[in-house]
Amino acid sequence: MELQTTLVSVSDLEALVMAALGKCGLSEADARTTTDVLVSTDAFGVFTHGTKALRGYVRRLRGGGLKADARPEIASEGPAWAIVDGHSAVGMVTSVFAMNAAITKAKATGMAYVGVRNSCHFGAAGYYALMAAKAGMIGMAMANDIPSMAVPGARQPVLGTNPFAYAVPAGQEDPIFLDIASSAVAGGKVRIYQALNQKVPDTWLVDQEGLPTTDPWLYPQSASLMPFAGHKGYGIAMMIETLAGVLSGAAARWGVKSWIDDDPSWATQHGAAFLVIDVGQITPIQLFRERVDAMIREIRATPKAKGAERVYLPGEMEWQRRREARTKGIALPADVVDSLRGVAEDLGLTAAWLGDRT
Amino acid sequence: MELQTTLVSVSDLEALVMAALGKCGLSEADARTTTDVLVSTDAFGVFTHGTKALRGYVRRLRGGGLKADARPEIASEGPAWAIVDGHSAVGMVTSVFAMNAAITKAKATGMAYVGVRNSCHFGAAGYYALMAAKAGMIGMAMANDIPSMAVPGARQPVLGTNPFAYAVPAGQEDPIFLDIASSAVAGGKVRIYQALNQKVPDTWLVDQEGLPTTDPWLYPQSASLMPFAGHKGYGIAMMIETLAGVLSGAAARWGVKSWIDDDPSWATQHGAAFLVIDVGQITPIQLFRERVDAMIREIRATPKAKGAERVYLPGEMEWQRRREARTKGIALPADVVDSLRGVAEDLGLTAAWLGDRT
Questions:
Q1: Residue B107: burial class (beta carbons within 10 Å; 0-12, 13-18, 19+)
Q2: Which residue among A245, B11, B152, B288 is least crowded, i.e. fewest CB within 10 A of its CB?
Q3: What is the ipTM of this complex?
Q4: Number of domain units in chain A
Q5: Domain with B82 in it: what CATH number?
């Protein structure tokens, strides 16, 4: 199964996103922050959460639901925690601010929680977790969203596909990192099956009676996503809703507005949460890095299953893709290119690599 | 599918466990702590992790791998973290000590991490997470174990079925809580299928070639457990290994010894980790409790899927079982009763409800 792709260099893609955000009134610094989150995500190959989302943000920036000049700020704090109010700044701007606050707090006390309110869709959780790993710390990032996921026994959406990510610094190896939705798959993946006109596995969606369906076209109007591993994904989504939505004072569940479908003049009021542990305060950082490297190498050397090419570490495929993206460019799927073409048209921007609208 | 059960009152079960641990030299207080963890777990209906495990602990206490008179202590600490050395005390004694340390730390700073080394199997992670919820805090608990779980692409065990639990305090409702293995199912569940002589679903086990198998008898010698949801369960297990095993300075992966099969004179060197957030420092606790209650009630009222009796909250089934256990007694499965009968025989104890060995 292959979708058509367009090869673009990281710098060309960045230039387009920077230009679009500049047109919307973002400062150079905020545009740079947002661009780095989105393009890094594409470089990792996570196209459902990269620059494809830009059009939705632009629409909301122009509609007033996102504010180009808003500054996130710490609304309240203690030694090992803070609550950040995003004041409807772009989700990436608020989330980077909040993760930096968590890193600073963790540096002082060893561990910190930072909750976020009045944010928006924050893209890929993994980016923020990796900020901590770059600082030699263990990071976690999570966010809530408008419900689109049913849970065992329910026929309607109950929770968002609340994402969770963590990252662990290594020594010579790449950081370990994981970035997952609490649904079996992200909604964007169902849309890919729509584009391919293929049935989905029966563990992805339930229909309006709450029964499994393989028809991708029912989603999202007449089908809900399913959590991964039944009650396990449901339980993890509830934890995220609590830490990102309830504890932070953000909107929760249906209080969150859709960053895609709802009126662009509305603030979506997403919540988020960031946790950081400062490894070096707890154990000698070099020893920790060596132990992580050893664990990575041992796991990689595990005898392979019949037919398997290798045993990957969490995040390893993404690092490989990113290295390739930096040298060879990013092969953007057609749906992403279409979306970016729409952004360019809306804002009167051009880029040779975008080609003509099909 | 039903196994034979024996009905026993909570107090009768507690009396047997107390007597057994007393015979092994535990102090009254340590025996009480251990008993409460194990019997609470049975009362929740999680029989794979309750008093069934007692026989393994008794064997190790008598063999010297666990020390009845060891005192866990804080080996190092900072404002929002501590490392606890269990000195080979019973896993429950060390884990309760560590969770209490995390609660105390969180009370001072808002959030805390406590890592544990030189512990043993700690039973059900949920018990410790609930200690935090009882104190009005959000708690998480996790532990590593000897590898028994393959990961995508591997034909051999790579990680333990590393458990994760969290609990959230509510107001008038029971705390939300989740307690899961990072495998699709716990090994104990495969043993139940052995007892029932039934095939297991093809998402539970891989054989020695790393391919799915439905034969429960291959486990554990010639089959490995699979993580839940493929790379998602694998990634969560790695996070737990890092926080519980590597950061804490405990043994990791194959460095951990089997609390069931390995020489009982050996210390198993399990690691664990506990995270606590003190809700009341971050947001008014009453407001938080009301928001959690509202979320619980809204989710419970979600229209039900066709054929579903109700929509359960994470932990709700366990609370129901526990209430029933307290009034009607616990219906212990035959494998648990057999195991306890073995303990009684080994230690020269009697209990009328145990009946004769079959």
A1: middle
A2: B11
A3: 0.97
A4: 3
A5: 3.30.1370.60
Question: Could you write out the DSSP letters of every residue in B313-342?
Answer: PTTHHHHHHHHHHHHH-EEEEHHHHHHHHH
Instruction: Indicate whether B130 and B231 sit together in one domain.
Output: yes
For residue B169, give its domain range. 70-181+227-301
pLDDT recorded at residue A237: 98
Q: Which of B176, B210, B252 sits opposite A305 (nearest CB)?
A: B210
CA distances from A45 to A96, A212, A329, A338 (A): 21, 29, 11, 17
- Within-domain flag for A311: no
Q: State whether B232 and A180 contact (CB < 8 Å).
A: yes
Same domain for B167 and B287: yes
Residues B76 and B141 in one domain: yes
Q: What is the pLDDT of residue A188?
A: 83
| Segments in chain A below pLDDT 50 | 1, 358
Is B124 inside any structural domain? yes
User: Using CA atoms, how far apart are residues A208 and B304, in angstroms rounded to an integer?
Assistant: 10
pTM for this one?
Answer: 0.97
Residue of A235, A68, A272, A25 whose CA lies nearest to B316: A235
The reply to whether B308 falls in a domain is no
CB < 8 Å to B246, chain A: 288, 291-292, 295
Which residues of A are less than 8 Å from B239 in CB distance? Answer: 166, 168, 178
- Looking at the fold, whether A166 and A249 belong to one and the same domain comes out as yes
Residue A36 CB burial class (10 angstroms; 0-12, 13-18, ≥19): middle
- What single-letter DSSP state applies at residue A48? G
Out of B110, B302, B311, name the one closest to residue A78 (CB): B110
> Same structural domain for residues B152 and B206?
no
Query: Is the same domain home to B34 and B77?
Result: no
Rounded to whole angstroms, the Cα distance separating B232 from A203 reads 15
Residues of chain B with pLDDT under 50: 1, 358
> Do A221 and A175 fall within a single domain?
no
**Is residue A176 situated within a structural domain?**
yes
B113-147 pLDDT per residue, tens: 999 999 999 999 999 999 999 999 999 999 999 99
Residue B10's Cβ-side half-sphere holds a number of Cα atoms within 13 Å equal to 18
